[in-house]
Amino acid sequence: MELLLAIIIGLLTAAGVFLVLRARSFSVVVGLTLLSYAANLFLFSSGRLMTNAAVVLGAQEQHTDPIPQALVLTAIVIGFAMTAFVIILAMRSRADLGSDHVDGRLPVEEEKPS
Amino acid sequence: MWLMLIVLLPFLGSLCVAFLPSNSKNWEAWLAGLVAAASTVITLCYFPTIASNEVATLRYEWLPTYGLNFSLRMDGFAWLFSLLVSGIGILVVLYARYYLSEKDPIPRFFAFFLAFMGAMLGIVLSGNVIQMALFWELTSLVSFMLIGYWHHRADARRGARMSLIVTATGGLCLLVGLVLMGHVVGSYELSDILSSGDVLREHSWYLAILVLVALGALTKSAQFPFHFWLPRAMAAPTPVSAYLHSATMVKAGVFLLMRFWPVLAGTEAWSYIIGFAGLITLVMGAFVAIFQQDLKGLLAYSTISHLGLITLLLGMGTPLAAVAALFHVLNHATFKASLFMAAGIIDHESGTRDLRQLTGLRKLMPITATLAMVAAAAMAGVPLLNGFLSKEMFFAEAAGFGSGNTWLPTLAVIAGALSVVYSLRFITEVFFGPVPSGELPKTPKEPPRWMRFPIEMLVVLCIVVGTMPGVTVAPALNLAVHHMLGAYTPEYSVQIWHGFNLPLLMSVLAFGFGLVLYFLLQRRYGISRLDKVPLLHRLDGQREFERVLLAVTSFAVRVEEKLTSERLQPQLFWLLLVTLVVGGLTVWRSPIEAVRSPIGFEPMFAVLWIVGGVCAVAAAYQAKHHRLAALILMSATGIVVSLTFALFSAPDLALTQAAVEVVTTVLILLGLRWLPKRLTPDVTGVKATLRDYRRRIRDGLLAVAIGLGMAATTYMVLMSAGPTKLTDFFIQHALPEGGGTNVVNVILVDFRGFDTFGEITVLGVVALTIYALLRRFRPAPESIELPAQRLGDIKNVAPWQLARRGYLAIPAIYFRALMPVLVLLALYFLYRGHNLPGGGFVAGLTLTVALVLQYMVSGTLWIEAKLRIRPHQWLGSGILLALLTGVGAWLFGYPFLTSHTAVVNLPLLGELHLPSAFLFDIGVFALVVGASSLLLIALAHQSLRSHRRHFSGKPPTLRKRGAMRWS
Questions:
Q1: Is A113 within 8 Å of chain B by CB?
Q2: Domain A2-49+64-97, what fold?
Q3: Checking CA distances to B826, which of A29, B44, B114, B678 falls within 20 to 30 Å?
Q4: The pTM is what?
Q5: ipTM of this model?
Q6: A60: distance to nearest CA of chain B, Å?
């Protein structure tokens, strides 16, 4: 199970990194979202994996680590704020600069989209 | 306390003057004058304290553990300097009042002037050396502002920049030197440093400290080889030149050398560094001064030369020479300030400062001419004037320096002769000769009465000190010397007549040589026709400085071009690559030991994760051309993540992730419409080039490498033994101290409440920023068109009529019926959050989802005609509630955000635990509702733009009350 989760996190990271390096703003938005999934899962996994444990006192014998959970909960909300901001920024830059390239314009040396 | 006022008043005055309107007549001058006078009077009032050999101190502790305090310290030496600074300040204010023209921005001048005075007094009175360095840099900064006062002039800007670069760099060296010094002594307090001379001189860092402090002092006092900035600083208004660049700021360098004379002087290195710098500056400055054709240029170089004299005296290292140096500082300040003011009057009245044009002004402005001639005589060292006394002391010291050396007395006489030459040149060429008849830009006349007054005062001082030194300057000088030199205080007497001795002979020789040299230069070489300095004109500090500056700048530009890019992709690529290398190396060098046994295999979740992974990769593949598909795939991954949280016992996370997923997807869906159409290569016919493929492969390799690294790290972390101490702490303390059984929620709203407070603030800021960005959103023309997806019979129906025509009627009714349920669910999550999975975040997001659903099925206009949502109010009240909950703890004497649990018995509900953190959570809830609905609604309203364009008919009007401007 641990190995599988590790592989999934690696996969999410790889997809995210590849997308973040693309030239178009939408790809970057998707990439950032995937990266934040990976980061959140990684952060969460630092509390080790436990099935059928509890964070609520008195519910179960076994307790999970509440700290990573609290941290990830914050991270999810902040990640949401970031995604929202980036997508609006992409909209504005497309509207004001006339291109959805991450630099606001096509690179000078190549006129074609990459 | 009064000590504080001396330094504080000028700064306060500066602030007041800065806000005066520019046409406030003489208010600025009056205020500045009063402030200077107040500082002077307070300083004078300290005389009895100083006279009884006490040291006035004042200290506020700031960072006592680092030895950083705000500390003021006034001994006799500092007293004399602060009297000099504030006293001449009064005179210069008076002078400047008449000098500045109506067109100049007068408040700015006096504001900077007072700020300078405050900074200078700060240097003089600092009892902490770090604080001294701070004021030191402040004087450089204000000097920059004052030199560049007429910033429309290129020479003013260039001069200001040069002086700032030179003196501020010196200031940085000084700071390092002082830090080292403090480190050696073990304290940054001046009094401690002054009493540890032996420790410093014997320490192995002594040379480094000396060089660094010398760099600070020599740059500030315009000593060779850093002298070149001072002549360029003459672009400043003349009051500034008189005050900063002759009487006070340039004296800061020698002040520093004097202040540290007891602890740093007396070694060979000191004599070589300080002494030679002074000697070269003395002779070179005087030589160059002779050949200046600009009146202020002549005075600037003579200032450099006199500062060289003072530095040389300090460098000699004998106590008597140090006394002479201090005395000369005072004398030079009086005669040079008055000379500068006279030069300013000449410039003001005749319109030129060119020595070749000026002539015969004695007839036109007799009083000013007389005053200037007396001051120039003092500069030359004529007996019965103050300059003579300190020059005589210098000659005596030079003659007695070392044993049997003849070169120093010779050079001293030569320097004396040169100073006679430039003083003569100043007097004869400006005031004597034929009366000008129309060659000058303006016809000179006597200046206003009070403009001349400061010069009169200073010249009277020159004469009084020169004739009666014993009763005028001696008592103050004695006090200052006593505090400056401490145990080294020598026996000396300030007198006019010491009998026929070697110094007197040297004086006579200097005058003789000077006179001969002047007439020789005038008759034989035609000095007034020369346009460059003979011999030394190649030695152009300014040119070298500009060259170095240019080289450094262009080097920086080249490096920047090579190493940086404005483009995001390369930046990110390198950032990620470095992350990979650093992260990889860290894990590689200290791998974590696997000790845990893996948990049991769950086939269903394995399948789920495979789906999630495939979705992520597919999203990456589709992101370019099929955005909608990519979005759906991405959301699917999000759902898988949410389920993963649920599996591994994190119900709060699962709930939040699911709710966030809904909101994010709706948000991106709304945003997608405004991005340009992306056509696949088979439609456009544009083929990807080899280069594109290469880039994709490169990025792909990096992505795979980072992914592998991430997977390996995760696996190592998962299999290692985790820390348990912190976990146990929270689990044990959640109920007794936080009053809740849901440990995650207790951490969020109680233990780490401040963190959460910061986070919701960020969320609020983001929502408002997005709102602001969308208010000014003007979409590209092509995206105003109706999207191709609007097909079929609804194509020609206005959106606000869709609902009435029964479009999506059943889902709409269903969702409307669901609304109360969802609201209740949200409140339920909120209510139970402290004890069971839930909490403000989830509750807020649930309510937002309920609202968004209504918007989606019924349309923006329909819903807003029925329902009033005020996101701003939600947002504001949420953050206020959270803040007030935190502040509330203060009322009970606890730190910010301390939680308290009240137990109440309510009729129906029974016993209730109401922690104050619950109020905080309500704040979080309100803010999340406000922020997320604000950004969704703001974005939804953008679609109305194209609706208005494409459909005729009047949309239903929004309710007036509570209606907001969304675009």
A1: yes
A2: Helix Hairpins (1.10.287)
A3: A29
A4: 0.70
A5: 0.92
A6: 11
